[in-house]
Amino acid sequence: MAKEKKHKKGGKDKSAKLPRDVFDKELRKLQTELCHLQEYIKKERLKIIVVFEGRDAAGKGGVIKRITERVSPRVFRTVALPAPSDRQKTQWYPQRYIERFPAGGEMILFDRSWYNRAGVEHVMGFCSGEEYERFLTGCPTFEEWIVRSGIQLIKYFFDVSQEQQEKRFNARINDPMRHWKLSPMDIESWERWWDYTAAYERMLDATDTSHAPWYRVQADDKRRARLNCIAHLLSLIPYERMDWQSPDLGKRKKKKPGTPDQLTFRHEVPLVY
Questions:
Q1: Residue 175 lies in a domain
Q2: How many Cα atoms occupy the beta-carbon half-sphere of 186 within 13 Å?
Q3: Which of 145-149, 172-176, 180-184, 240-244 has the lowest mean pLDDT?
């Protein structure tokens, strides 16, 4: 993995935790820009793929949630595929991912992607050595084909330290609302940290290309990681703010005779709160 560098801007200490109020304020600005980007994507019929890879518990899902929570799911579509079925295992490896590629006016966010073959499948022995080597050799050509077809491809790797990963795994263990986030594969990834390190290093060496570069997101600080990633994503897509035509609601039509003042229901949700 690339050697971590410490950055300072404007004399501020980047090692201090970002205050919640600052995070919320900056996030709102970025989410507003995502809404402007959305209108441009629809107008220009852009096709964009954003790949999110990284260590388990590095915060991929958290940033995807912040990207999508204020925009339309018809434009910003999240794809998180389960393990392949028996039929899919017999297909050309990228086939099930290609089925989810964008049409004009869409951005697809892959919460893990075809890079499973270079990570979990290789480390856990879910693919053969020949399949693994074929993937690393063919992936740059596959991604060049994607880009040449008119799709903008953006790839992020969320990198987290061992200490932060342990802290987040323990939080999942101790919080019933986070139990679903902890899978047997997460435990394996914890035990095989260095196997994954070697696999990711090989992956980066083979697939970091000029037409589809990898961007590392330093993710020990979740708040900064989310803001930095969204700001960077916005910087990679040239867009213009579209003029907003405020609609005139006008006046409601008059009630027709016999129309009830309120809807009639047979069942109500109890007012417990």
A1: no
A2: 16
A3: 180-184
211-239 residue pLDDT tens: 999 999 999 999 999 999 999 999 999 99
Residue 131 CB partners (closer than 8 Å, separation 6+) = 93, 117
CATH at 141: 3.40.50.300
Instruction: Flag whether 35 is in a domain.
Output: yes
- How many folded domains does the chain comprise? 1
**Domain of residue 206, residue span:** 20-159+193-236
Asked whether the predicted pLDDT for residue 67 surpasses 60, the reply is: yes
In a domain, 36, yes or no: yes
Handedness of CA 217, 218, 220, 225 (dihedral sign): negative
- One DSSP character per residue, the chain reads -PPP----BTTB-TTSPPPHHHHHHHHHHHHHHHHHHHHHHHHHT-EEEEEEEESTTSSHHHHHHHHHTTS-TTTEEEE---SPPHHHHTS-TTHHHHTT---TTEEEEEES-GGGGTTHHHHTTSS-HHHHHHHHHHHHHHHHHHHHTT-EEEEEEEE--HHHHHHHHHHHHH-GGGGGG--HHHHHHHHTHHHHHHHHHHHHHHH--SSS-EEEEE-SSHHHHHHHHHHHHHHHS---PPPP-PPP---PPPPPTT--SS---S-------
Judge whether 127 lies within some domain: yes
pTM for this structure? 0.89
Max CA pair span of the chain: 75
